[in-house]
Amino acid sequence: MLTFIGLGLYDERSVTVEGREALRAADRVFAEFYTSRLVGADASELAAHHGVDIEVRDRAGVEQDPEPILDAAADGDAAFLTAGDTMISTTHTDLRLRAEERGIDTRVVHGVTAQSAASSLTGLQNYRFGKATTLPFPYAHGGGDVPASVVETIEANRERGLHTVVYLDIKVGTGPTGPDPDHEEYMTADVAAGLLAEEWEDALAVVVARAGSPDAVVAADRLSALADREFGDPLHLLVVPGDLHHVEADALVGLADAPRSLVEE
Predict the structure, then answer these.
(1) What residue ranges define each of the domains in the chain, with the CATH number in brackets?
(2) 106 appears as a binding residue in the annotation
(3) Is 9 annotated as belonging to a binding site?
(4) Is 252 annotated as a binding residue?
């Protein structure tokens, strides 16, 4: 059996009760933290809290050399952990399909996602979100600006009156000059706002920082204004709202300190 377990958003306690039980019952436990990570606990703290050994795999160890994970699942019960929800954004469908092809039973234990938390924290209604996008570091796509695909996604959603979740780039194990096992870099919301302000300087945006943590931050303002603020430790994301329902406008004012004049424009 191969059980995919979403750990939630913050620390070793954010996993669901079902996920905790499956994690502790597994014969071997694998994890990856290159697509996202828990902001309140590292792998050693997670392992100590749950009384298990965790084998952390890098991208190559999951995508190019999954055999140790699959062999463990074929011989017993294996768990595979990611932050958030293991099949949302940090998607590992390929690994699950490989297991199924080998006749290995699989199941998914879901965790809270950054997108659902963004809706909950901002008060923006979940069914009014359009396609999400990821804003990469400029060096990661070979340019110095916002990729056309990001601009197109946000514009298409805005034309339909929909909100856009903008995930911010994470680089673990690779940097500007190539592979680097010691490199960790997390785009912050002020940097992202500065990049997006080149396209939409006066557009309303909402920062969500450290969703799921005790000190989560939600802040709404013009992109140009957000670019001049600091929002503390990662992980961060941005939401670019579309048309606002009056309850959503009130929520941004009350929960994110948005200027009333801005949400009413």
Answers:
(1) 2-109 (3.40.1010.10), 114-263 (3.30.950.10)
(2) no
(3) yes
(4) no
